[in-house]
Amino acid sequence: MTTAKDIMHSGAQWIPAHETLDRAAQMMRDHNVGALPISANGGQDRMVGILTDRDIVVGCVAMGRDPSKVTAGELAQGTPRWIEAGADVDAVLHEMQEHRIRRLPVVENKKLIGMISEADLAQHLSDEQIAGWVEKVYSRS
Question: Given strand 83-84, what is the order of strands in its sheet?
Fold first, then answer.
């Protein structure tokens, strides 16, 4: 059985909720990622959301706000989703499809150990699995 841990990329980095968006953008650049899980109160024990590069552009810059004054926590929305490291690929696909998300943090023993992105799915799944995922996540309904 292929698990979430098998297809994730390791080394996911947290951004504390109090950190500014300009710092988040620097972290994304330094780690070559497009999303960072947001941790509550600067700790790495509770996820309050995920911040994407698009969130910074659309939710801050395009609104005329200053990224050095807006925090990651201010852009955290909704209920954060994650998957246990031992979950099988079908559970990963279901979680991402059900919630129409493109990135999924992976946890083990309540600790963030990695992230699953579209690129990870493309590397590890069959064409049929990817086609089904794309249809459900990107459909307009």
Answer: 9-10, 111-116, 104-108, 83-84
Distances in Å between the Cα of 76 and the Cα atoms of 109, 119, 128 are 24, 23, 33
As a whole number of angstroms, the distance between CA 137 and CA 96 comes to 7
The string of pLDDT tens digits covering residues 40-88 is 865 566 788 899 999 999 999 999 999 999 999 999 877 889 999 999 9
**Residue 133: how many other CB atoms lie within 10 Å:** 20
Q: Which helix or strand (DSSP H or E) is residue 120 part of? A: helix 118-124
Q: Are strands 47-52 and 83-84 parallel, antiparallel or unpaired?
A: unpaired
Gap between the Cα atoms of 90 and 3, Å rounded: 9
Distance CA 89, CA 70 (A): 36
113-129: per-residue pLDDT in tens? 999 998 898 898 888 88
| Beta bridge partner(s), residue 39 | 16, 47
Residues in the chain: 141
Question: Model pTM?
Answer: 0.83
Rg (CA), the chain: 15
> How far apart, in whole angstroms, are the C-alpha atoms of residue 16 and residue 47?
9
